User: Which sequence fits this backbone?
């Protein structure tokens, strides 16, 4: 009978220990493991621009939208990078800053019916890919 009491007591203490681990330690470990450090160094090879909307009316109202993704060597977004988008209608260049995912968005309009070759620079370095957007009536 005495052994049975020891067995029950050790079981209760074991369950209390497991409960403590589940309640206190595990959530803190999971939070620590899931927080990724933000990317710092841009990789020109991994960064790119892509058109979200590359065909619009040349009415000065309909917008084209270009997204620039600034990524590091591991494919993670690099936040707070200045991106200069070049080749916009009217010979304009626009500078935007990347968000926490490394994305910068540029919207623009045109009254001229034409195709424009859009490129991007980050830290003075041109991205290797360009994008063609079209405005037409």
Assistant:
């Amino acid at each position: 009978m005495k052994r049975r009491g020891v067995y029950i007591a050790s079981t209760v203490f074991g369950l209390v220990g497991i409960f403590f681990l589940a309640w206190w330690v595990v959530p803190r470990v999971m939070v620590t493991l899931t927080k990724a450090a933000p990317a710092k160094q841009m990789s020109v090879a991994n960064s790119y621009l892509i058109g979200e909307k590359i065909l619009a009316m040349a009415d000065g109202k309909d917008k084209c939208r270009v997204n620039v993704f600034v990524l590091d060597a591991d494919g993670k977004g690099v936040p707070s990078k200045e991106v200069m988008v070049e080749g916009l209608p009217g010979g304009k260049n626009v500078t935007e800053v990347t968000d926490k995912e490394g994305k910068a968005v540029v919207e623009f309009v045109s009254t001229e019916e034409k195709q424009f070759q859009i490129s991007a620079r980050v830290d003075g370095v041109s991205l290797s890919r360009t994008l063609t957007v079209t405005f037409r009536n």
User: Anything to note?
Assistant: The longest helix spans residues 2-34. Residues 1-35 form one domain. The chain has two domains: 1-35, 48-136.
